[in-house]
Structures are given as C-alpha cells and as structure tokens.
Design a protein that fits this description.
The complex is a heterodimer of chains A (about 300) and B (about 425). Chain A has about 300 residues and is an alpha/beta fold. Chain A contains nine helices and 13 strands. In chain A, the strands form three sheets. In chain A, strands 5-6-7-3-8-9 form a six-stranded mixed β-sheet, sandwiched between helices. Chain A has a four-stranded antiparallel β-sheet with strand order 11-12-10-13, covered by helices on one side. In chain A, strands 2-1-4 form a three-stranded antiparallel β-sheet, covered by helices on one side. In chain A, helix 2 packs across helix 3 and helix 2 runs parallel beside helix 4. Chain A starts with a strand and ends with a helix. With about 425 residues, chain B is mainly alpha-helical. Chain B is built from 17 helices and four strands. In chain B, helix 4 links the parallel strand 1 and strand 2. The longest helix of chain B has about 35 residues.
Chain lengths: ~300, ~425
C-alpha cells in the first residue's frame, strides 16, 4: 500500500542568474513523519522549501502539498518558520503569536488564548505581555516558532530552526517538534547541524550543490559508510600493522580500521595467533556527521569536475 | 471559504495590524498634530516678517507741502479716503503736511534725504497744478497725493459735506462667486497635494518597517504578496482617513471660534457643486490620488534593500508629486486650454486638477467620468505595483538595488504555470 504523503515533489528546478540553485530535487515526506533536509550553507535548502510552500514558483518540476498542487490553497494548514526571523518589535508576545495565527485563518481571540497556553508550556509564561523588543533573541525566536504552530497546522516547515538558539532553547525546540509530531502534524525542517537531525528525523534528504545526494532513514544514511573498529593491543609492538587491514591508522595507543565485509573475527584471530593481545576493541558505527561530510565532500568534488 | 473571502480576510488582518500599529502609538499624536506644528512654524515666520515690516511701515511717510490754510482740508480728505482700505497695511503710508519753504521744489527733494523717516512721495506747488515726486516703487502713493489735491479742489466748489445719502444693505450671494469658486478650486488642489504628500509617504514607512524587522518574509510565507500589498495600502489609507476625519471635523467647527470677518471670508469659498457634493468628490479624488501614489511608493519601496534606499527612491516620487500639484494649479487657471485637458487625462495629475475643478465647475457628469478613468489607472498602478512588490520582496541578499540584481539575473518569480 502506498504511503500517504504530506509533501511530494519531483524534479524541482530553480534558476538564479542562470545558475541552477536547485537542480532536479525530489522530496517525499510521509504524513506524520519528521523529515530533515540537510545540507551545507548555500546548498539550496531554503529555495527548495520556498518552492514547496509556493512562496516562489519552480522553473521546472512538480510538487503537491497536503495533496494540493497549488500550495497556496492550503496555506492555512501549514506553519512556516522562515530562515530570516522577523517579528514586530512593538507587539506583545501573545499578540505576535495571535497575529501569525490570524494570517493563517485563526481568529485573534482564539489565537491569544492559545498563545498564552503555548507560551506557558514553552516556559515563557512570564513573557506573555512582554513586548518583542524586550525579549532575548532566543526567546523571540521561540515566540516566532509558537506563532507558526498556533493554528495547529497539519504540516510544519521550519527553516534552520535551531540556529541562534542556546542549548536550553534547542532542547525546548526539539521537545516542541516532537510534541507537534505527536499531535499528528508532519514536520519538515532544514538544518546543517547533524545532531538534531540524528535525534529527530524519521527520514532525511541530503542536498548539496542544488542536488539531492541522499534520501532515506538515519539508519540507511549511516549504512552508506562501513563500520570502523578501534583495536588496542596489550603492548605497543611493531608488526601489529602487518596483521591489520590496509587502511589501518595508528590512533593514540590503538589502531583504527574499516571493519571488513566478513566481519572483524578473522582479523582478531590473526592478531591473537601472532601473539598480539587484545587490550580493547570497540566497533564504531558511522555517525550522520560522517555520512554528511562524506556526501557533501563527494558532491563538492563532482561539482569541481 | 471562497478564495475571495480568504483574500479579504488576509488583507483585513494585515491592514488592521498596520492601522493599529500606527494609530495606537504616542508618535501618532505628533503626526496628527503635524499641521499644527507646521502651521505654528509658518505663523512664527509670518509674525516675524510682519513685525519687521510694521516697524519699517511706521517710519514711512507721504508728504504734502501745502498752504497752511489747506492743511485741515487735506487731513480731512486723507481720513475719509483711508476708510476705503480694509487693512491699515493696504493704505498708503501716513500723511505728513508741511508749510512751503522759500523753494518748495528743493524742500520737496530734501524730504527724500531725511534719515529719520522714509519719505516715498511728496506733493508740492499749487493744488490746481501740483508736482508729485515719488520713489520708483511708490507710484500708488504718488497717485494718492494727487487724488487728495483733486478732492480738496472739488470741495472748494461743492463743499466738504457729502453730496449723497447712502442706504447700505448687506446681501448674501445665492450662487457662488467666480472668485470664491476659483479660490476654493486652488484651495482644493493645495489641500489634496498637502494631504497626499503627508499621508502617502506613510506607505513607504510601512515598507521600511517590514524591511527593518524582516517581517516581510513571515508575511510572504503566510499570505500571497497581493494580500500584503493591499493590506498595507488599506491600513495606511485607514490612517489617512482618520487624519482627514479629525482635521475635517475640526475645520468644519472652527468657523464657530473664528472672528466673524474670517468666517465670512471662509463662507465665500463656496465650491460650485455645493459643499456636500464637493466634500464627497474631494474624498473620492483623495482616495484616487492616495491609491495611485501609494501603489507607486509600495512598488518602488520594495525594490530597495534598506531604509536609506527607500528614502532615496521616494524623493523622485515626491518631486513628481510637486510637479503634479503645479500642473493642476496652472491648469485650473486656464480651464479651456490644452494644459487643463492634459491635467485631467494624465493619471497622476488628474485627481488634483479634478478636485479643483469640482470647486470651480457645476457639472457632475465630468467628475463621474474622471473618477472612472482614475479608477482604471488605480487598477493598473496597483497591478504593476503588486508585480514590482512581489519581485522586490522575494529576493534577499546583498545590499544592491533589487532591479540591478534582477537585471543580472534570469530569475523568474512569476507564476510559470508549473503547479
């Protein structure tokens, strides 16, 4: 059975000054999932999100948002936190949230009520009537985020939501994203910080140089790179390297090498047979960070070619 | 909910925010009272100039060198003639009479060298054949002295007492006078120019505000830019209407507090179509002028990347506005010339000229036609403005002018029909 999609885009292309900023990107976000769009600065993440939302039109490609091929028609069911944060400095926090809800069709009275509840839940109950200009940057950013969820959207799109937030507020934001998913919303966010994506995403896409370089789950991303083993002999003797795979490198007291396709047992048997003891052995799974660096680096090389 | 209703709701949300954000601030009071401040500066300047002028007038004289036996007659006629002047500053300088010396001609010339007073005209010689000397700018004073001599001689024949007994009755006009209509025409053009100059600029402030706090990105993401554009235009228009209502009410009631002579003067400014119809037409033309200029300001303002650029770009628009005011005023003074036809047709000058025409001309049909014509141009300006606004707002990045960036780019932000 085909999975229901909140966002479905194929072959999105956007040209700026003759340059393909987005070059044939496909994105399929299942309903109810948390989906990350990862990529380095200038990869085309923001442009892709803007095209998905219908803020700008693609030069080529197709997309549907919540089943509609005209994204603007469902804008009331979408929440969006743009990369460039902006609030009216003279507005009170609850009014700013209610105003953003009103833009998406929520009446102001309900918006204000919900704003108070949301602010209290986010630990900002004391700032309900505080003007935006008097809030810290992180608090204002949270207020804007609350403004993008106040109308309880079916799809929440966040562009670099973690940038500029301190660790405490980053944790609050992660909790809010999970709460939105639990409410039933689909969350699509872009980031270049892998730790958040690793913790939150059900699926992700890596974009570099305007092209999608990977799409899948975090586990599938990690599986792109082989596991690594860190072996520490009982004694630091010469001749250990001769029994290790060719890519082994000396790291501190031990040796790091790629786990062969048939596993690490054969290497260990050889080492023991040669009289090298095992003081320590750990198998390291590649992190999303490793995958990202590898994929982006490879993309940069391709682009250079 | 239909798309139209959604569009209206979005426009209303943005318009209400802009209206509230402008009106419910202490600075709005300053803005509301701006005409008072401007008027006060004008009054202070005027008072200063007037005081300086009065100081000089007090020492200015006309001199009649006449036989001492005629001094009383001359003084009496001077008093009688001066009653014709409503304001003292309109009358000739004060009269001084002197008895003739041995050489009256030399005595007359010597008066102009007096360092204690400024003598501008001197009469000497027999009243039947007097000589009048006057400075190049004082021919009227010279004529006045000649008239005094003439009157004195006529009194010799018919006596000093008035020959006729006049019955005076004050009559109010039933139809507006040509002079009043012309004056109210110019007043209408000036008022429209002043109001649009003061109020349409508010639209630029609205764009500058969005630019400064980057809210435009939030708005653009949530609602179509058409709604943002209309919302901003209507929000600031609401502020303008409030401003207009405040001052309109104040001015309409001010005649109660004014001196009767001034109130009577104001009553003379009756527009040809009558005050109620004229008020409606003036508001309609104000709406058209505001929408035309507001659309230009918004469209152009969106092309700038910073507040400074917005100010730079709005300067030429203001200059065009001044030119349109000038065109409207000149056209009013030449009602049947090609200039007036041009001023009526050219979209930017049409509201100014037609507002003045509403005060001058009694025909209503031409105004309905003009309003329809202007409404068409408002639609065109708004359509182009929205397009410019959309293209300007949705690009971010370097501080160079948007149009320069766009020229170097083949970016197409308009609907490509892909969806």
């Amino acid at each position: 059975m085909r999975q229901e999609l909140a966002v479905d885009a194929h072959g999105l292309v956007k040209l700026f000054g003759g340059r393909r900023v987005v070059d044939g990107v496909d994105i399929s976000v299942p309903k109810g999932a948390i989906y990350g769009v990862l990529g380095p600065n200038g990869a085309g993440k923001t442009t892709t999100l803007r095209m998905l939302l219908g803020i700008i039109e693609p030069d080529a490609g197709e997309r549907t948002l919540l089943g509609h091929n005209r994204p603007r028609e469902v804008s009331d069911r979408v929440g969006y936190l743009p990369e460039e944060r902006g609030l009216y400095p003279a507005m009170r926090a609850k009014d700013a949230i209610a105003f953003m809800g009103a833009l998406r069709g929520l009446d102001l009275k309900t918006g204000r009520k919900r704003a108070v509840t949301l602010l209290e839940a986010a630990g900002l109950g004391h700032a309900v009537d505080t003007r935006i200009r008097k809030l810290s940057k992180g608090m204002a950013q949270l207020v804007q985020l609350l403004g993008s969820v106040v109308h309880q959207p079916d799809l929440l799109v966040l562009d670099e939501p973690f940038s500029g937030l301190d660790p405490v507020n980053q944790e609050r934001l992660e909790a809010l994203i999970l709460a939105e998913r639990d409410r039933g919303a689909t969350v699509l966010f872009s980031t270049h910080v892998m730790a958040h994506a690793e913790r939150l995403c059900d699926r992700l896409a890596i974009i570099a140089g305007g092209k999608r370089r990977f799409e899948g789950t975090v586990g599938e991303a990690r599986a792109m790179l082989p596991m690594r083993a860190l072996y520490t002999p009982t004694r630091d003797e010469s001749g250990v390297a001769a029994h290790l795979p060719q890519d082994a490198e000396h790291v501190g007291d031990g040796w790091r090498f790629t786990v062969p396709d048939d596993g690490v047992e054969r290497v260990l048997s050889t080492l023991i047979a040669a009289g090298h003891g095992i003081s320590g052995l750990s198998i390291e799974r590649p992190s999303l960070h490793d995958v990202f660096v590898k994929v982006v680096g490879r993309a940069a090389l391709e682009d250079m070619k | 909910m239909s798309r139209f209703r959604i569009l209206l709701r979005q426009i209303w949300t943005i318009a209400r925010r802009d209206f509230v954000a402008t009106v419910f601030t202490p600075t709005f009071l300053i803005f509301l009272l701006a005409p008072v401040v401007m008027g006060s500066f004008g009054a202070i300047g005027g008072l200063g100039a007037s005081a300086a002028s009065k100081g000089a007038d007090a020492k200015t004289r006309i001199v009649a060198i006449v036989d001492p036996a005629r001094t009383a007659d001359i003084a009496a006629f001077d008093l009688r003639l001066r009653r014709l002047y409503r304001q003292p500053e309109e009358a000739p300088p004060l009269l001084q009479t002197l008895a003739p010396a041995a050489d009256p001609a030399a005595q007359a010339r010597a008066q102009f060298d007096d360092k204690r007073i400024d003598v501008v005209a001197v009469l000497y010689g027999p009243l039947a054949t007097p000589h009048v000397l006057y400075t190049p700018t004082s021919s009227r004073s010279g004529n006045y002295l000649a008239l005094l001599a003439e009157e004195a001689l006529r009194a010799d024949r018919s006596g000093i007492a008035p020959l006729s007994t006049v019955t005076r009755t004050v009559v109010s006009r039933t139809a507006p006078s040509l002079r009043g209509a012309n004056a109210s025409g110019f007043f209408a053009v000036f008022a429209l120019f002043f109001l649009t100059l003061l109020l349409a600029g508010q639209v630029v402030s609205a764009v500058a505000e969005e630019r400064g706090n980057k809210v435009i990105e939030v708005l653009a993401a949530a609602v179509p830019l058409e709604s943002v554009f209309f919302g901003k235009l209507l929000g600031t228009f609401g502020v303008a209407v409030l401003f207009l209502a405040f001052w309109g009410t104040l001015i309409s009631q001010a005649s109660v507090l004014m001196p009767p002579s001034f109130a009577a003067g104001l009553a003379g400014l009756t527009p040809a179509l009558g005050l109620p119809v004229f008020t409606l037409l003036f508001f309609a033309y104000f709406t058209m002028a505001y929408m035309l200029l507001g659309a230009v300001f918004l469209g152009v303002g969106a092309q700038a990347a910073s507040v400074r650029e917005i100010q730079l770009l709005s300067l030429p628009i203001t200059l065009i506005q001044v030119a349109m005011f000038g065109l409207g005023a000149v056209a009013l003074s030449r009602p049947d010339s090609w200039i007036s036809t041009f001023a009526a047709i050219f979209p930017l000058s049409s509201p100014y000229y037609m507002a003045g025409r509403a005060a001058q001309s009694g025909s209503l049909g031409i105004h309905l036609l003009a309003l329809a014509w202007q409404a068409l141009w408002v639609a065109i300006f708004i359509a182009v403005g929205v397009r410019a606004f959309r293209r300007g707002v949705l690009q971010s990045g370097s501080g160079t002018f948007r149009w320069k960036r766009r020229r170097a780019s083949s970016d197409k932000l308009v609907d490509t029909g892909v969806s």
